[in-house]
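Ticket #4471: structure export looks truncated?
Reporter: QA, pipeline team
Priority: medium

Steps to reproduce: submit the single chain below to the structure queue and open the exported record.
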Amino acid sequence: MSDVFEKCRSWKDYRIAKATGLYPYYRAIEESYGATEVQIEGRRIIMVGSNNYLGLSADPRVKEAAIKAVERYGTTCSGSRLLNGTLALHEELEQRLAKFLNREAAVVISTGFQTNLALSSILGRHDIVFADRQNHASLVDGIRLSFATERKFRHNDLEHLEQLLQQAAEKEPKAGKIIITDGVFSMEGDLCDLPRIVELAQKYGARVMTDDAHSMGVLGEKGRGTSEYFGLEKETDLVMGTFSKSFASLGGVLSGPSDVINYIRHKSRSVIFSASMTPATVASALKALEIIEAEPQRRARLLDIAEKMHNGFRAMGFDTGVSVTPVVPVHIGDQVKCFRFWRALHEAGVFANPVIPPAVEAGHALIRTSYMATHTDEQLDRVLDIFEQIGKKLDVIPQTRPSTYTPVQIARPGTMVRNNKASEKWAAASEGHHGTNGFTLDQLSRMSSREVAGKLFDAVETLTWRAANLQPEDIRKLGQMPMKLWEKRANIPGMLLEKGANFFIRNGHEDRS
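Actual output as written to the record:
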């Protein structure tokens, strides 16, 4: 009889990452200094891994609003919105957001993830959802929880989307249809092609929804997000946003036609069976909304910073991919090297996020950086300097800066840009194609002992990490290899290391470069 816990005991990734010092997750922040710097393990480091785009989480006005709300209402409502969990503050926030977003109505929900789960309440058995393959996990789960049919189209491939829409029109003409997409894609920082999506939606009779978690408060003249940026607010039926980013709080909002929002209020499990947003989170979001409307210079500063960082990285030879937003991904490629890069950043005083498969395609591991309007130029210059030092040390960028680079065009109001042209390497990795970087015997024979040592260390570290991720079926795929090799897989890195050590002892004084 199998044990449901067996998969947990046999999972090696965590232990291997911890043992090699390459575990980047759940780093406890002990103190925050104006949000742009934090203390971790007793060290003060620059934060470029937060989605606090406008820097409002540390704004005294937002903190004061949260404190006053607790003093007035207590710490929690201890119930759902449907029953005892609706405060006058919730209704005020919903009314203000509906007006801000130019929508008939809005409903606020306890988390951004739960907000997208609420989609399941309006998707039925005879509906079809057309979803971008790189949509956020909460959208994926919200669609899965419904009884609707899901048709995924390749990321930002609108020809593929039209093929799927056309097939549905021919085979299931009576089905309800909705196209759901992130506005700004959270890992790579590019935008959806909303103009073309709207065009296709009108042609095939589909509704449109955007997840504006990373664009609300950031894009558009007033900060209303993707649909405002493209001038398509009337053509976008539903807009979702989160409060955990530009709004310096926790929660989410769905806005759109009043009858749809009212239906969600009464039918969505994530609304009626979850405790409501706390008084402090509602008050924080309200005050942040007030500041977003009153201080457009924050958005302007944020986009200036995004442009500075994109082009600063590119001037060194880094590849920041297709992003046109304050999400600035730095392409590394190999996942072990990505973790080593993260560790070096952390040790040098920079907090950033390593992103590996399955969040991105294999061979497309990256360091995701994101910025706040409150970052100083001195902090940003320090980050760039540290990235350059580590990039050269790990051979991610050339030792000498390239003579030219392609500058990034940022998604400022009126520009209508969606993405930057991807390099061939970025495009190949995004499509799941990547090359290997092996060495021939001839190349090894010309290396010095020190160079070989470095290459062997990389190989051992890589094999140590990856050996734990092999499965018995992987071995069988490799030509029905005997299970003895599978049983001894953990010894392979050690054997290599022992052979390598003996090689260096014998050849430590030779230099064949």
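Status: closed, not a bug. The export was complete when the record was re-opened. Leaving a note from the reviewer for reference: Confidence is low (pLDDT under 50) at residues 435-441, 504-513.
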